[in-house]
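thread: overnight batch results

M.L. [08:02]
morning all. the overnight job finished for the chain we discussed friday. pasting input first so we're all looking at the same thing
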Amino acid sequence: MPNKILTPITLWQDFDDNLPLKETVIKTLSIANVDYNYLYFSGRQTNIGRVRIYGIYAKQKSNPLGSILILPDSKDEIDQELVFHFAKLGYDVLCVDFHGEGEDFKDYTKYPSDVDYANYVKCERSFNYVDNTAKETCWYEWTAVARYAVNFLKSKNPNIKIGVLGIKHGANVLWQLSAMDKRVDASIFLFGAGWLAYKNLFKLEGNTIEIDDERTKFLAGIESQAYAQFVECPTLYLTTTNSDEFDSERAMDTLLRLKNVDDSFVNFITSTKAVLDQNSLKNCELFFEKYLLNKKITLGKPEIDVIFDEEDIIFNVTAPKKSEIEEVKVYVSFNDINPKERIWYNASFLSQNKSGTYKFAQRVLGNCETVIAFAVVKYNNGFTSSTHYVYKKANLKTTSAFPSLIFSSSKMPSNFVVEDIKGELYGNVFTVQDSYYLSEGPYGIYGITSDNTLTSYAVRKITPRLNDDSFIKFDIYLKTQDTLKVTLNTVGNVKFMYSLPLSSSEEWQNIQLTLADFKSELGQSIKDFEKITSISISIQGTLMVNNFIII
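M.L. [08:03]
and the structure it wrote out:
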């Protein structure tokens, strides 16, 4: 079978998942009504031995509501916190390890030496290429682990439904699992949706890759978009709009291949890059309650229509169960080809008619060629659902410039993105609290508040107007003494920084910096302002900032 091109069907048609599991428990913790078993069980047979799968299994002492399988990112260890979280909700939960051997790992999945590339630290080319066949890749071994994990859960509870949560590259494994194993009753994909071979080739850019034999075999047998057409169970896809690692725009092409469109949901997060907000965890809970426990829960799917009215863009948003809707938002971007650096503006709400259509408007900014937009609807039960991206060719030249005001307290921004999270995370992917929020400062004036670094790409839209005399101005409130760090990030990841020690004060402090204040690590000044891609602001503690302007 050397050099054979395998498709999803031919790759998995002869897979043997009937071998005994040979479970070995190495440690048990009993908390409340749950036994947490740290264990090994056997996976597939290779030419020289069987894979020994490591994981943690939460077993309810009474009857479980359902079973949940957690597939972590390939570079992460098993996640105890997410197991504990869903176990507390009444599920039996299993989380398995894909990573394999690691320098600091005591317990991990043990792959036989003939599939040594299944260890994340040794996967090398098999992560992105197929040298011989798709069976000789880390992805095949990881999906085989997931299939035996389903066997394990079915051996414990053969008559209850199984939901699977895949995190980042664990989500890419889940696309294969959901397509090839019909025992999966509901699937949640976080970030991962294929297109690994197209990394940094953006959809709107129109560039293509060279499709050689190695790429052809990878696209045919490994990539998630090849599997989407075979996924029949309900799906929920959650991601961030500006992820560095996963292209949310390409992901929409994967979702369009799903056949079960009525039970397919998506939600975009604009406030973070590498992690999801805490409401995303609520989305997962509600999704599993509906499709594993058969509860009557509203999971609405909004629709958006885009119309040009002279220099205004009008958005009409509709969604089912209008009486249960708590909030509707529309996010708009102009001409941004690279999703990682896309700037999202909040469209202004205009009205709601009796039929339940929400009307929004956004002034066309700059010379507009393409408008990209999506709507988000939040229901009273906490479920949040987005439309897919919609694209509208405009080719308009307007006098409305992009605003110098990056943020004011009049409304929450959509163009701040948190890149580092200092606080606690569930599963290395869900924030426990808002990454930033509005709170009240001195004199009843509100500001954006965060423990994390705040980054805005909106500066890219105004760089043609900047010069040596340009300045950055904002108000900041600190409860404790700290050092303010402002960074101009430029093309090629060259950073120009300015640090300023600040005392605590019960007053808003006004900060004004000229662009000449910023220096690189080599002490150089920034010369080409149009190479600025974003601006970041941070302190060690908690900052509150308002009226952020670049002129």
